[in-house]
Specification:
With 185 residues, the protein is mainly beta. The protein has one domain: Beta Barrel (Porin). It is 10% helix and 61% strand. It has 1 helix and 8 strands, in the order H-E-E-E-E-E-E-E-E. Strands 1-2-3-4-5-6-7-8 form an 8-stranded antiparallel barrel. The chain is elongated, with a radius of gyration of 17 Å. This is Acyloxyacyl hydrolase. Keywords: Signal.
């Protein structure tokens, strides 16, 4: 058991350490970082409910801006813990795009999508392998709290599968709720 947790815990440590100091990301054009908590429940596991709770750290930069729209490129480093039907740990690095509708000063609606590699320690028939791919699509609201800090609240539909790398590839789809803070720099 301890051996199977070494790689996920090592990757989580690397992800957290790399995203804690956002000033280094400013050199690459990133101008925002955030911390987000999430929870999700699976919709299609055969043997019961599969819940996950976790956090992700992200950096973001605008790549296209108009008067009423802004498209951001984001990179999320995620760690989560599964429980109920099976227990395990998940780590992922997910590049994503988020499109903001710049309609008012009270809140900014957004839509988003992303996909990237994921590793988990689950032993369930729906996944087959520890190495998988995580993809998501979502929507949410950003509430500016002050000049440099915002509150994000959102929903994502997410899917994990091994993309045919193993014969067992049903995958797991989930409804995910998230809440987080973002800081501009």
């Amino acid at each position: 058991m301890a051996r199977s947790l070494f790689l996920p815990l090592f990757l989580v440590s690397c992800l957290l350490c790399s995203n804690v100091v956002p000033a280094s990301a400013g050199v690459l054009g990133f101008n925002e970082w955030g911390l987000t908590a999430f929870g999700n429940v699976s919709m299609d596991t055969d043997d019961g409910d599969l819940y996950e709770a976790g956090m992700f750290a992200d950096v973001a930069m605008p790549i296209w801006v108009r008067k009423d729209l802004r498209l951001d490129f984001r990179v999320e480093g995620q760690v989560g813990v599964f429980f109920d039907y099976d227990t395990g740990v998940e780590v992922a690095i997910v590049p994503a795009l988020r499109l903001y509708l710049m309609c008012n000063d009270v809140f900014l609606p957004y839509v988003e999508a992303g996909a990237g590699p994921s590793y988990n320690t689950l032993d369930i028939s729906e996944l087959g392998l520890g190495f998988n791919f995580l993809s998501f699509g979502g929507l949410g609201l950003r509430f500016p709290l002050c000049e440099a800090m915002s509150l994000d609240v959102g929903y994502r539909w997410r899917h994990i599968s091994n993309a045919g790398l193993d014969n067992q590839n049903q995958g797991v789809s989930s409804n995910q709720l998230l809440v987080g803070l973002a800081w501009a720099f």
